[in-house]
Structures are given as C-alpha cells and as structure tokens.
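Q: For a teaching session next week I want to show students how multiple molecules come together into a single three-dimensional assembly. I've collected the sequence lines for a complex. Could you give me the predicted structure tokens for the whole thing so I can convert them for display?
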Amino acid sequence: MSVPGSFSVLRVLWLLSVFGTVLPLDGGMLFPQESSFREVKELNGLWDFRADGSPNRNEGFEKAWYKRRLTETGPVIEMPVPASYNDITQDPTLRDFIGWVWYEREVFVPARWISDEGTRVVLRVGSAHYYSIVWVNGEKVTEHEGGHLPFEAEISSLIRKEPTKPCRITIAVNNTLTLETLPPGTIQYMNDSSRYPDGFFVQNIDFDFFNYAGIHRSVLLYTTPKVHVDDISVETNFMDNTGLVRYKVSVQGGFNNTLNITLMDKDGHFVASSTGSSGGLKVVDVKLWWPYLMHENPGYLYSMKVRQHAHRHVGVFLQCDVYTLPVGIRTINVTNTQFLINNKPFYFHGVNKHEDSDIRGRGFDWPLIVKDFNLMKWLGVNSFRTSHYPYAEEILQMCDRHGIVVIDECPGVGIKDIRSFRNASLSHHLVVMDELVRRDKNHPSVVMWSVANEPASEMPPAEFYFKTLIEHTKALDQTRPVTYVTIAAADMDKGGPYVDVVCANSYFAWYFDQGRLDIIPLQLSTHFENWYRKYQRPIIQSEYGADAVPGLHMDPPMMFTEEYQNALLQSYHDVFDQKRNQYFVGELIWNFADFMTSQGIYRVVGNKKGIFTRQRQPKAAAFLLRKRYWRLANETGRLLPD
Ligand code: BDP
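A: Of course. Below is the structure for the complete assembly, covering every listed component.
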C-alpha cells in the first residue's frame, strides 16, 4: 500500500537534490537500438586482415595502408568479426603476434542515410583490444585506448563526400601492453645476440589469461536524427509499494526541444509520464527488480520511452527521436555486515567468468552466451563478477532480464609494478572508470563496481591510488558500492579503508601448503576474522578454487584431480557456512569454466580451475556446487518477512 505523505517527502527531497551521477565525459554511449527514428546496420562477417610483421610494426603507417584498399598494399586474409584473431589460423606467429593488425571492410550505406541531411550516421565498435585507430575512406575518424569498452565516431559528412562509392572502413588495432595501459604489461627486448635474433622481444604480463586481441564485439553503423537523445541516466528508489524513477536526459544537435518521458510496465501498459530533461516518475504498486532465486518473478523491467521533438518554431516540429531504456527499480545498500538489495540481505552464490572460448578467443558469440546463462541457471547461480574486464553489453542486458546480479570489474588487473601506480596510469584508470560507468550505469543487474583485481595493494603508492580511484568512482555513481579485489593480507593492504565491501581472493592448499587440505579451516577463518576486525565491512570470497584436469581421479585426493577440486571447495564451504550469519555475504568460485592463458610451466593448455571445461562440460565440482547453490537459494534467497 502506498503512503502518499512519506512518498511526497521522498519525492521532494529527490527532486531537489543534485542528481547523483556526474558525467565528466563528453556525450553518452547509449546502446544502439532501432526505433521508428533510428536504424542499425551490423558490419559483422568477414573483413580483410593483415598483421604488420615489419620489424618496428610500423610499415602500415609509413606506407599509409589506410589510404587505399588493403589488398593494394599487400596480401590479406579473411578474418571474422567479431573474434580474436589469435586462434583463427594455423600460424603460431599470428597467435602470439604483438603489434598492429589491420582490418578493412567496404560497406554500402543506404541512399537515404546519405541524401537526408537530417540523419546522423555513427560508426561504432563494441570493443577492440587494445588500442584502435579508425579511418573512413582514408580519413581518420577516431582513436581509442582500452580493450573492453565501446567507441564511436560520427561519419555523416564523410560518407556524403562521395555518395556513390562504397564506404571503406579501416581499423588498425594494437595489442601492445605497457606500464600505462590497463591491464599493464612491459615489452622486453632480448639483446643477447648469442641467444636471440636481432630485434627479438617479448610481451610480459602479470595476469593469468591469454591476451586475446582483435575486434571482439560488433561493428555497427547506426543512425539517429541530427537532434537526438544522447544520454539517459536513471536512479531508482521505492518506499513501501511506491517506486520512483529519477531520470536525466541529454539532447545533442540542437536547442528548442520537448522531451516526453513515458514509463510502461512489462506488458506495455502506461505507468507514469513526465516532461523535461530531468524529473521523477512515480510508480504505484511497484514491481521491484529482484535477483534470480530471490523472488518468483525476478528481473522485472519497466520500459522508459524517451521521446524528443525538436522545434523549428513554436508548434512546428523539425525532428523526432525515440529511445527506449529498460529500467529495473531496485535499491542497493551496504551495512557493516550485510549487502542489501531492496533492503533485504543478499547472499552472492555465484561464479567468476571470462569471455573465453575455443577458436573465438574473446570474440562475442551468442550461442556461447546463451549456453553460459543456461549453465548458470542450472547451477543455481545468482551472481557473477566480470573478471577481469567489462563484458559485452548484451551480457549485462541478459543479466537485467534474468535477474543475475553483477559485480562489474574494470580491466585493472595485474597492477603489480610500482611504476604502474604513477600519475599517467592513474589518469588512464580514471578515464576507464568514466567510460565503464557511462556505459553500464543504467543496468539494474550491476550492483557494485570493482576498480581492480589483486593489485600490489601492499605497496606504499597504493593508498593514494585507490583512495583517488574509489572516490572518483563514488562521485560518478552515488548509488552503488565500490570495491577492489584483494589478495594481500589485511594488515598489509593500503587501499582497504576505502572499499565498501571487502572482496578477498585466496588459494589455501593450492598456491600455498600444496596438497594440505587440512589447513583450510584454520587459515580461512583467521583470514576472515582479520579482515573483519580491521575494516568492519561485509566480506565476499571473490575467488577460491583448484585446477582439475577433467578425467583425472585419485582417492585420497591429490592436486589436479577432480576429487581434490571437490574436497578443496567443500573445505571452503564449511568455513563459509560458519561465517554466513555474521559478516560473510558471498562466494564466487574461480572459475566458471577452464580458460586460455599464456604458455608457462604452471598451466597445462590454460587454467583448469573451471567447474566446467572450456567446452562447457561439467566436472565433478559442477554437481557439488549445484547442490550447494540450490540449498543456499532456499536458505538465503527467500524473501524474508519484514
Ligand atoms: C587469481 C587471479 C586469477 C587467476 C587465479 C589463478 O585473480 O586471475 O586466474 O588467481 O591463479 O589470483 O587461477
């Protein structure tokens, strides 16, 4: 039942307060969508491709490969987009290539997009790893640093220059990682000529996954009207059974606009409306967005239709635009001991993932994504962490719809070298957080930002670095908690005081005390007690696990067998169950599936800590976890009585 009095107080406070989200970046990054006024054209498929194998990897720029067709400057091969290029051919040089690769494709742009000056045409790349430069018909249109977030450029005027010709899109992508990239890395030249040929170099990295590269997500052309909805931000709240959606809309390309906002329920029925670029929508008898297994109707989404009219003069419309944003109404709060969704304690029983599969590498693949969701639901997973970089937006949209809760992690993984704590690295890290929050701020499934994984948080510069990073992220989004994932001991950790939730990884009886499962109860409880005593924050076990080579058996268990993986998980679970009613709020297994890493003596064709193989077949641990997660769902997921 709604309480009009208290609601209006809430509403007034909300509307008067400064909107919680600040946007330091120019412009928005709305997911491209079709509407009566917008069109989308996918450029996925086969592109021409060449790796620049010249000694300095610079021939492409010296010879300006972007000025002509790629076939005119040398040999090309066919390369699928989206996909990592590494595992597509039989050539180990391409698998392990470091430097610039070149992609090119010609596309016919619909005649109306060219003739209609009121149409804005945008070229968008979902993600390309790591540094990209884009040309259209030989003219540079944009460049972008960072491997997991989208970038785009308006190309309307360019394509109108030569309206009858196909439009040639060239994208050069460089996967080199340096001390200032995210993730960081170093290039090391081997100068001993008795051991290495001239110019021999290697890419050193401090993270445990293959540095897949190429165009990983869709390349699109899409249109908007010239005067268009550029960005939308929503924040939601509720009191009793009345919800409130606060929104802010920005329009680009002209003044004199009218904005009409309409909220509809899942069945398309009218719920509320408003006008203007910011405001609030009151939702009577609100249906909250609930996580999977916490409610019989999880992932409830309203639709917020933003309709924009640009006027030539009063009453005469020049242009219209419509963008529809899915909106889940929910709140997130953190106390000293609990993680609350809609004011109810939420317990994470979930997984860590990778965007990783055979052949495609990190390339976007619908069959894989849908299979993974089916496996997660079979397991009884209610959450995952986007270890160790932002995942495709389509994945977050699925999480919104299915009620899968997400800890959204940026690519701050492997920050181990003290030189990667300097200002240049920090500045870039702040920009990446800007881009991440701008892209993902409206997803109800995203409940927390993770600004890094296992940085060298014991190093003295870590304190300033993480204080700055976490405060910046909180200023960008005042509605979600912020964490970074740590492996340091509580008493060495310099950034710990700034996190809202302690996310701690540990590998007892694996990397330390190998084979000694019996030490887990003592070491794990001590670890938790130390963290809690020091920071008084809820704790999530954000990684734990053991490698298991599928089909390897031994009893009593030995490392690398399926029995050892099971026994290790079971020992961890016993401790989790003791701490669960105190301050312990979640467990995320490392890892959902086996995944590829660089070659090394610690990895047998990749990391085998998956409870599924890389081909998504279950190991024994998948059945153990499934039993546990469904039990946990029954014990912790029910809506608790008020
Ligand atoms: C953790 C890292 C993760 C690794 C895992 C492992 O966060 O990226 O893959 O160890 O070694 O420390 O399996």
